[in-house]
Each structure stands twice: as C-alpha cells, then as structure tokens.
Amino acid sequence: MIWPSVEAIAVVPLSAHALFARPLVVGPEATVVIEMLERTQGTGILWCDGRRSHELPRGARVAVRRSTSPVRLARLHPTAFTNRLVQKFHLPVEGWRGQAPGAPA
After folding, report:
1. Residue 31 CB contacts under 8 Å (≥ 6 apart), including other chains
2. Do 61 and 35 form a contact (C-beta atoms < 8 A)?
3. Which of 31, 36, 52, 69 could form a disulfide with 48 if both were Cys (CB 3.0 to 4.6 A apart)?
4. Cβ(29)–Cβ(60) under 8 Å?
5. Cβ 103 vs Cβ 70: under 8 Å
6. pTM for this structure?
7. CA 82 to the chain's CA centroid
C-alpha cells in the first residue's frame, strides 16, 4: 500500500513463481529496467496499468521511468484515505491504541 501523497513507482510481479518475488517501490526519478534472458525457454508478458499487455520475446529489454505528463490511474474520492482503508478492510477503530493515559487499569 502506498500513501496517495507519496510520489513513487511501484513494480509488481504478477503470477510470480519465486518465493522472493515481491513488489518493489522506488523513487519517482528512478528508471526500472526489466530484461528477458536470452536463455529462457518462453516469453514474458508486460502488463501496463492492468489494461494493456505486450508480449516480450527472449532478449527483450523494457525501461520504465516517470513521464513528464501525469496520468490518473485511480479515481480519488473526497473521503479521507484513512477512512477508506478502515471501511475497505473492516479495520477496528476503537481500542487498538491501548488504554488512554490516566484511565484506571
């Protein structure tokens, strides 16, 4: 989960078959490069924003960096982000901070 005000690039492996294939979050000025190895047996698929896909042949190289033109990938609601998290994940909002200071034990 990345807070809405954080400027970052998220790289998320889909259908990864490795134990340590985890999402990666890098700074907005980083360039992320992904290469398909020549020695691999198959091809890869690059998904962009969950809608567009491109098949990657062996030896393909993809570089991703921040654009000068912003793209809105999510529709933001006027409700605070924390309130949406509480509602979506059914988070408890009472009692999780512990006992109030000065309250009897």
Report:
1. 63, 64, 65
2. yes
3. 52
4. no
5. no
6. 0.62
7. 17
Q: Is 85 helix (H, G, I), strand (E, B) or coil?
A: helix
Question: Rounded to whole angstroms, how far apart are CA atoms 1 and 8?
Answer: 11
User: Hey, what are 25's tokens?
Assistant: 């979050």
| Torsions phi, psi for 85 (to 5 deg) | -60, -45
DSSP state of 103: -
How far is Cα 56 from Cα 61, in angstroms, rounded to an integer?
8
Question: Is residue 73 pLDDT above 80, yes or no?
Answer: no
Query: Which residue type is seen at 49?
Result: D
Whether the per-residue pLDDT at 102 is higher than 90: the answer is no
Give tens-digit pLDDT for 48-69: 777 888 899 999 999 989 989 8
What whole-number distance in Å separates Cα of residue 86 and Cα of residue 54? 36
Query: SS3 for 45?
Result: strand
